[in-house]
Amino acid sequence: MLLDLKKVFLSEGEIFEISFEFYLNEDTQLRSFPKPVKANVLVRNRAGLVTLDADVEAEVVFDCDRCTANTSRILTYHFEHILVPSLSEENGDEYIEAPDYSLELEELLRDDIFLELPVKLLCREDCRGLCQRCGKNLNDGECGCNKNEPDPRLAALKALLQ
Ligand SMILES: [Zn+2]
Ligand SMILES: [Zn+2]
Fold first, then answer.
1. How many other CB atoms sit within 10 Å of the CB of residue 34?
2. pLDDT category, 149, cuts 50, 70, 90?
3. Which of the residues 5, 76, 95, 104 has the least number of beta carbons within 10 Å of its own beta carbon?
4. What is the pLDDT at residue 1?
5. What's the 72 CA to ligand 1 centre distance in angstroms?
6. What residues does the ion ligand 1 have nearby, CB within 5 Å?
7. Angle at 15 between CA 9 and CA 19, to 5 degrees
8. Ligand 2 centroid from CA 132, angstroms
9. Higher model confidence: residue 148 or residue 54?
10. Residues 6+ apart with CB under 8 A from 21
11. Which ligand minimizes its atom distance to the CA of 120?
12. Is 98 exposed, middle or buried (0-12, 13-18, 19+ CB in 10 A)?
C-alpha cells in the first residue's frame, strides 16, 4: 500500500489518518499469522516535522518454545517514526524515507513487527516445559521422575571418565 503524503508534507498542521488490515504472509513452521494485522496509523505535520504513529494488533499462532503446546496470542505494538522526503547522512538511521512524499506503509509496519517479535515465544511466562527424562508436559502436573537421580547417560559418561 503506497501512501501519498504530499499534502501532509507540504502543509503544517495537516493530519492524515488511516485504519486498515493486512496479512503478514510470513508463516513459518514455528509461527503463523492466520488473521490479518489491524493497523491504525496517524501521520501529522507539526511545525514542519512529519511524524507517523501506528498502533498494530497481530494474532500469532505458535508452538511454545519450552513445552511445544500450540498457542495463540494477540500482540499489540505502538510504533513511532519521523518521515523525511529523502535521507541524508545525518539522519540516515533514525528516519524513514518517503521518496516523492509517498510511503510503503505495509512494508514499514511489517519490518516494525518483525523487529519487535520475540525470538522465543512461550505459552505462558512461567511455562514449566517438558520433563527432560520422560517428556511429559510439566504444566499438566508432576511426572514422578526423580529429578535428583543423575541422568543415566551422564552417569555412563562419568564412569567412562573415571
Ligand atoms: Zn509452554
Ligand atoms: Zn518425567
1. 11
2. low
3. 76
4. 86
5. 11
6. 64, 66-67, 123, 127
7. 115
8. 7
9. 54
10. 36, 37, 38, 39
11. 1
12. buried
62-119 pLDDT, tens digit per residue, is: 999 999 999 999 999 999 999 999 887 666 667 999 999 999 999 999 999 999 988 8
Model pTM greater than 0.90?
A: no
Residues with CB in 5 Å of ion ligand 2: 131, 133-134, 143, 145
Q: How far is the CA of 77 from the centre of ligand 1 (A)?
A: 23
Please report how many Cα atoms fall inside a 13 Å half-sphere around the Cα of residue 4, on the Cβ side: 1
Q: What's the rounded mean pLDDT across residues 120-127?
A: 94
What is the length of the chain?
A: 162
